[in-house]
Design brief:
The complex is a heterodimer. By secondary structure, chain A is of the alpha/beta class. In chain A, α4 links the parallel β4 and β5. Chain A has a single domain, classed as Response regulator (Rossmann fold), CATH 3.40.50.2300. Chain A is globular, with a radius of gyration of 13 Å. The termini of chain A are close together. Chain A contains 5 helices and 5 strands; from the N terminus they run βαβαβαβαβα. Chain A has a 5-stranded parallel beta sheet with strand order 2-1-3-4-5, with helices on both faces. By secondary structure, chain B is an alpha+beta fold. Chain B is built from 17 helices and 17 strands. In chain B, α11 runs antiparallel to α12. Chain B starts with a helix and ends in a 5-residue tail after the last strand. The chains are: A alpha/beta, B alpha+beta. Chains A and B meet through α1 of A and α11, α12 and α14 of B.
């Protein structure tokens, strides 16, 4: 069973992703900022990280930068999501893509699309 | 006193020209009869006084200095001749005179001799000279100037700038009554002029709108100064009228305010879009979960469905709250009227409209509102615009700070409502502080700030009869203070 780490400071969104992905048979752990996400990553060794980009303390970009890379690739799969609408939202997502995120999503998006994406990128 | 000295004294005293002798420091030692007549002082009153009393500012002028320099190199100073020097008569008006200044050494002591001639001795030449100078100044002033005489306010003089504004030549004006040139002056200007002549009180900086014959149908905004001129018997005989056309300036200002308003609405709507996308994403996801639950072949888990629908409801109400704020904001943008608003509520509104930019930058906002603060009488949108701008500036100042706090303190002091927005950011030098309210001044990178925020905020607070000030210390932070009178029905 694949393990997913969700990093989003918005509790309700975090809960939604957990409920949905668990109902589809994934094991899910949740963090509410980048710092916590990094700690949980080392503790849980997930197969996939779904991280929000704009967050307090340590944002998604910083988290991605801190994940140790092997051969310029993240140690696990990464999906970046953002609230969009804000002036810099698009820029953040582009940066995440540049850093090597496997896929990016802009809220609001369909859970189904997310699931399809997960299925396609997971081995 | 020896004979020679007595003789010299007598010659000086009875000379036809006014002669004054001072020591090196300008202290008067000799004051002859002609000088007494010219300045109306007795020797007893003026001896030992400084020459400044009679010829103000002259000792400090460069002429005096030059002469002094020359004097150090020769025994007898080369005489300096100065024309049009202002003399001050005792209790009387000032007058113009010609001065011949020399320095001589008497018993190794340097003294100055002032030989003076009243310019009135050859008035015509002088009057022509002064009149030529004044005309040159008058004609080249970038503001409109006219001198109006008599009970009908006839143009005695007018400069090119004002003639152009009126759309007529200078010659067309001279001798005509003001109402012949400007039909609207009858109600707009003449009553003011009559009042000025009756009371002797000038009109300073009056803004008004008038239609000029040069451009019918397009009223112009003018600022005028009307100053009465008194004649010898202290009777008012004429009015100096100074006029500046500020139409373009007023229009430009209005456009700036409008564009900054639009910019701030744009910024807010971007923030609000982000705020709305969050609940929309949740509604989308929860709805999908419900669909999947209903679609599945196993028995429907009613509890799970209800839980998800409940979460959808919550997000819908959160969204409608945000939209309500936006609606309120846009309605008020259209209304532009002043009402009484609760201070705390206004502060909270501006924080909500900031979206989540504060939360995502880990800035702690501490609001402290005094309990018995009276409501603010203000234009909602404009006031929110000021607060949002101050908070947003504070936020930007905090980006590299260790302590990230914004304090918003509201209190009532000396009959004024005060709101301080304090940050613990990088602070500003006093040079920067002097410039922050200047239009287009910005410390931000091009594209990040318009440089208009603070100048417009300043204008808005001023329009509410209040003051917006700044205090800052480099490395410690900045405080912007708004203070408003309770009644500001300006």
């Amino acid at each position: 069973m694949s393990k997913i780490l969700i990093v989003d400071d918005e509790i309700a969104y975090n809960e939604l992703l957990k409920d949905y992905l668990e109902s589809h048979g994934y094991s899910v752990v949740c963090a509410f900022d980048g710092k916590q996400g990094l700690e949980l990553y080392h503790q849980e060794k997930p197969d996939l990280i779904i991280t929000d980009i704009v967050m307090p303390d340590m944002d998604g970009i910083e988290l991605l930068l801190k994940l140790t890379k092997k051969d310029d690739k993240f140690p696990c799969k990464v999906i970046a999501i953002s609230g969009g609408g804000r002036i810099n939202g698009g820029g953040y997502l582009a940066t995440s893509k540049m850093l090597g995120a496997d896929q990016i999503f802009e809220k609001p998006f369909k859970m189904e699309d997310l699931r399809n994406c997960i299925e396609s990128i997971m081995p | 006193m020896d004979i020679a000295e007595q003789r010299l004294d007598s010659i000086i005293n009875n000379a036809g020209e006014a002669i004054i002798v001072t020591n090196e420091k300008g202290v008067i030692e000799t004051f002859n009869l002609a000088a007494q007549a010219m300045f109306d002082y007795d020797p007893a009153e003026i001896i030992a006084k400084n020459i400044d009393t009679l010829i103000p500012n002259f000792l400090h002028s460069s002429h005096a200095f030059e002469t002094e320099v020359q004097a150090t190199s020769t025994k007898i100073g080369a005489p300096g001749k100065f024309r049009g020097i202002v003399g001050l008569r005792k209790n009387g008006p000032s007058f113009l005179m010609d001065l011949t200044l020399s320095e001589i050494y008497l018993d190794n002591e340097k003294v100055f001799t002032y030989i003076l001639r009243h310019i009135a001795d050859h008035p015509k030449e002088e009057l022509v000279r002064i009149s030529t100078y004044l005309d040159a100044i008058l004609q080249n002033l970038p503001v409109g100037v006219a001198i109006l005489e008599g009970p009908e306010f006839r143009y005695f003089k007018i400069n090119q700038t004002l003639a152009n504004l009126n759309g007529l030549s200078i010659e067309d004006h001279i001798g005509k009554a003001i109402v012949e040139i400007l039909p609207h002056a009858k109600e707009m200007i003449v009553p003011e002029l009559i009042n000025i002549l009756e009371t002797g009180v000038p009109v300073i900086h009056r803004e008004f709108t008038i239609e000029l014959p040069s451009n019918p149908g397009h009223p112009v905004n003018l600022i005028d100064w009307q100053i009465p001129i008194l004649n010898e018997e202290k009777k008012k005989q004429a009015v100096v009228s100074i006029v500046v056309d500020v139409t373009q300036l007023t229009e430009a200002q209005a456009m700036l305010v409008q564009s900054a308003k639009l910019a701030s609405i744009g910024e807010m709507s971007a923030g609000l879009a982000h705020e709305i996308n969050q609940p929309l994403g949740i509604i989308q996801g929860r709805a999908e979960i419900v669909k999947e639950l209903m679609d599945s072949n196993v028995e429907i888990d009613k509890g799970k469905v209800l839980y998800n629908l409940d979460r959808i409801e919550k997000e819908v109400s959160r969204t409608s709250k945000i939209i309500k704020h936006l609606g309120q904001f846009s309605r008020q943008v259209l209304l532009e009227e002043r009402k009484h608003f609760d201070v705390r509520w206004l502060i909270e509104e501006s924080l909500i409209l900031q979206g989540d930019t504060l939360r995502t930058t880990s800035i702690e906002v501490k609001i402290n509102v005094m309990d018995e603060i009276p409501p603010i009488y203000c234009d909602y949108v404009q006031f929110i615009q000021v607060l949002t701008n101050l908070i947003s500036n504070a936020k930007d100042a905090l980006c590299d700070s260790a302590t990230k706090e914004i304090h918003i303190n509201a209190f009532f002091e000396n009959e004024k409502i005060c709101i301080d927005v304090i940050d613990t950011g990088c602070g500003m030098t006093s040079k920067l502080q002097q410039k922050v309210f200047d239009p287009f001044f910005s410390t931000k990178t091009v594209g990040d700030g318009t440089g208009l925020g603070l100048s417009i905020s300043y204008g808005i607070i001023k329009k509410h009869a209040g003051r917006l000030t700044v205090k800052s210390e480099v490395g410690r932070g900045t405080t912007f203070s708004i203070s408003l009178p309770i009644e500001n029905k300006s």
